[in-house]
Structure formats: structure tokens, C-alpha cells
Amino acid sequence: MGVHDGHRDRMRQRYLQEGPDGFANHELLEMILYGAIPRGDTNEIAHHLLREFGSISNLIETDPYEIAKTAGVGLKSAVFISQLHELVRRYDKEKRMEKTQLTSPRRCAEYCISLLNHCTTERFYVVCLDSRRMVIHTAKISEGTVEESAVYPRAVAEVALRYKSTGIVFCHNHPGGRVTPSNADTQLTASLKRMLAPLGVTVIDHIIVGEGQYFSFFENHLLKDEK
To answer: What is the model's pTM?
Structure first.
């Protein structure tokens, strides 16, 4: 074990005992770099990166190829740093979504557009809601080709029951851009609604997304016994 290995163990123990609040930015970055640089002094590299880019946020938002130009940092480490930004972005997105309350067709649509607007193949999601219409969980049930996506009713029921949903919003995308529901979309929605009713789960809406547009089954009176 080298001198740096002993230092890394001490840093980890300090982190476990004191928590992160007592660590400066360069110390946290130093420890994060342990994952990409198995040997060597990452403290000096962390200092150099923060001097070069000015802040943690600037650093992780920078293109990996630009980070790799910094002395002492290879492309492997640069990619590792860049992945931190994506991880943080997804964490923030998930936390925001978990706190979302879907109280209107427009709110449902905005939520579903954020899920699907970037997708190039057809996907079908189930959004589970509690009695206050707060999002509990969002599950991707299927992903298909541009033309079709297979949705299995059993998988929908399992998700609804697992998360103790009282309401459900379905959403899927039409990658071609047209948001008008097909006959298959309408029949599937009716079938799933009938299946979920005895389980005490209400279908609140079904949103179809296509190139920033949306179609709401609720707004277009395609759900019977609307509430």
C-alpha cells in the first residue's frame, strides 16, 4: 500500500465520521476522482481543475474533451466527471417529478411531454397518483418501434397495486408527430380502465405526445364517468 492509499483510507474514514459538510469543494472532488484514478495524488488534480474552471458547476457542465485538455486529466477521468452532471440532472428531475401534483389535463400533459418529447421510438408510461393527485411513481411499461408498442395489462395492474395508486395517468408518444388516437389507442384505454376499476384505481387521463403537441382523452371526452 502506497502513501496515497493510506491517505485515501483516512479521507474515507473522515467522511464517514464527520459527514460531507466539513469538506471543501476540492476535497470532495479529490475523493470523487478516486473512482477514475486508482493511483496517484488526486488532491492536486482537484485543485487544478477548480482553478481552471472556476467552480464545481462549471466543471461538470463542460464538454469532456475540454476537461481532458487540462494537465493531469485524461479522457477517462473527464468522462467520469461529465457523468456526474448527468447523474445530478436526473436526480433533480426525478425529485421534481415525485413532488408534482397533476390537478388538471394541462398539468398531466406538461408532465407527460417532459417524459416523452425526446423519444424517437414509441413508449408507454403509467403515472401512479395518490388521492391528492400527487405523483407516486412513473413506470415505463413498454418500448417499441416507431410504429408500435406492446402494452401488457398485467404489467399495468402490477404497477398500480405495488404503489397503492388511487389514480392512474397513461401516456405514450407518436414519434411521427400526429397525436390523434388510433382505434387501438382508444380500445386499449377502455380495456385498461375496465380492468383497473374493480381494483379501486381510477384512470384520470391518457395523454398522447407528439413533437410538443398533446392529445388528452379527458379533454376530448373519451373517458366515461369523468371525475
So the answer is: 0.59
Do 110 and 155 lie in a common domain? yes
CA atoms within 13 A on the CB side of 105: 17
Whole-angstrom Cα Rg for the chain: 24
Q: State the first-to-last Cα distance of the chain, in angstroms, to the nearest integer.
A: 67
- Give the integer Cα–Cα distance in Å for 183 and 188: 8
Looking at the structure, do residues 92 and 124 belong to the same domain, yes or no?
A: no
pLDDT by residue (tens digit) across 27-79?
999 998 898 888 878 898 999 999 999 998 899 889 999 998 886 788 888 89
Q: CA-CA distance, 179 to 39, in Å (whole number)?
A: 54
Q: How many domains does the chain have?
A: 2
SS3 181: coil
Same domain assignment for residues 115 and 208:
yes
Distance separating alpha carbons of residues 98 and 25, to the nearest angstrom: 29
Q: CA 188 to CA 109: how far, in whole Å?
A: 19
In terms of C-beta density within 10 A (0-12 exposed, 13-18 middle, 19 or more buried), how is residue 153 classed? middle
CB half-sphere exposure, 9, CA atoms < 13 A = 6
